[in-house]
Amino acid sequence: MDKRKGIILAIVLFLIIGLGTFVFAGGSDEGSGDGTITPQLDGGDDNDPTNPSDPTTEDDGNITEGEDREDTTRPTGGNDDTDGDELVTDGEGENNPTTPTVDYKALLDELANMVESATSKEDLAEAEQFRKDNNITEENVAALDDDAASKTYDEVIAILTDNDSPVVTPDDLNGSFTNKDSVAVEITDTTDVSYTLTINGEEVTDADLANLTEEGNYKLTVTDSAFNSTTITFTVDRTNPVLLVNDEEVENGETIYVNEDAKMTVDETNLESFTSNGNDRTESILKGSWTAQNDGPYNIVVTDKAGNKTTYKVVVDKTPIAVNHLYVLNNTHNDYNVSEENRYKVIGNGQDLYVEYVLKEEFTSNPILTIGGKEYEMTCDVASWNDELYKCDAHATISEDMNLVNGEVIPFTITGVKDIAGNETV
Question: How high does pLDDT run on average in the chain?
Fold first, then answer.
């Protein structure tokens, strides 16, 4: 009986020890299965082999003192690797960090401000890099479902991708000269533009580009929002070239006569051509002057680059009018009985003289006959026998106050015979 009790007691003790070991192993760091890790907080007998705080642990039924064992308990408050961010664990124990949200609206506003405040191509290049670095794309902006944002994006992209200079029309305006009453300029570009306009070097701020009328040299510079620029120059000139002969201005269409070399110059900044009798003398005029030296007519045509043209006729005449004949007749021009010897001699007071003067060229003023200190203006007309000759005549009566001597040649002069060029026949 005592032996049986001892066996039963041993079995009971064995079962008690085994049960304690099972409870200890099942209550460690396995977790409850809901993603939350719960640490062991139950205190116990330091000598209790089931107490996890006891440095004496049991492994496979063997007790080892002082052996280090990995602590499988973890508080639910955080992890050193998460910088304080809360970990969310699922039933499998995996960590899922929250994906950060990008504020593309704020980034787009910042990009738009960079473009608006840009002052150069370099500034726009920085804005484009900012756009790429922050992945500001059409898709990401469209995802905002904001019409205003989409419009802003389109305007910004239009500027950032614009490498084309503004177009100024008419196409043939640049470098041209025109004598039109008005010039209309049109500017085309995909972005907003600004421009500066100068006329003869002076800036004009209130010009109407659709109706430019002022004469002068124009310079127009157009710059778009992407800092692409176009510059053109043109000239509005409605003033005729002016010819000067020997430093005297000649009217357009005028015919002038000179009795010396004709030195010609032109008052024209935009001279295109200068011809004389069809011969090109432009090079000489551009160098300063051209001179007509020989007698004769010179038909001059002067044209400027705007198409204004003037014509002139310059006649060089350095030869006095030739005399066809001169008659001095006693008594009457019909009295041919007077001998040739006595025809030019004084034969007494009261003598009637007839003087006939025939010239081969038209003249500008009537001749003056002077005898014995007395002057007589001669009457002139085309000769009745030849319409290429010009006849002048005068009648004079010799008187005592002329102080002429009988039998002497009549002393007389004819003056004032000048041709249109100013040459005088003596």
Answer: 81
A 10 A CB-CB count for 380 gives 20
Query: 302-326 b/e with 16+ CB inside 10 Å = b?
Result: bbbbbebebebebbbbeebbeebee
Which positions ≥6 away from 159 have C-beta within 8 Å?
Answer: 115, 124, 191, 225, 226
Element (H, E) at 382: strand 379-383
β-bridge pairing 352-359 and 386-397: antiparallel
Question: Which is nearest to 405 in space by CA: 328, 346, 342?
Answer: 346
Collapsed DSSP state (helix, strand, coil) of residue 192: coil
What's the Cα-to-Cα distance from 206 to each of 195, 212, 221, 423, rounded to whole Å?
12, 11, 15, 58
Write down the pTM of the prediction: 0.63
Supply 172's token pair: 């043939």
- Taking only Cα atoms into account, the Rg of the chain, rounded to an integer number of angstroms, comes to 61
Q: How far is CA 309 from the centre of its chain?
A: 28
Number of H helices, E strands in the chain: 6, 27
| Whole-angstrom distance, CA of residue 354 vs CA of residue 352 | 7
Please report where in the chains the tokens 């701020």 appear, as a residue: 205
Alpha-carbon distance 378 to 369, whole Å?
Answer: 7
- Return all residues near 309 (Cβ < 8 A) that are at least 6 apart: 240, 241, 301, 302, 303
Task: Using DSSP, state whether 375 is helix, strand or coil.
Answer: strand
Residue 283 to residues 16, 52, 175, 268, 275: CA-CA distances in angstroms? 132, 117, 22, 14, 10
Is 165 in a helix, a strand, or coil? coil
CA atoms in the 13 A half-sphere facing the CB of 111: 28
Task: Report the candidate in 286, 313, 308, 311 with the shortest Cα–Cα distance to residue 298.
Answer: 313
Q: What is the DSSP letter of 109?
A: H
**pLDDT tens for each residue of 113-162:** 999 999 999 999 999 999 999 999 999 999 999 999 999 999 999 999 99
Strand, helix or coil for residue 132 = helix
Q: Which two tokens stand for residue 256?
A: 């002038």
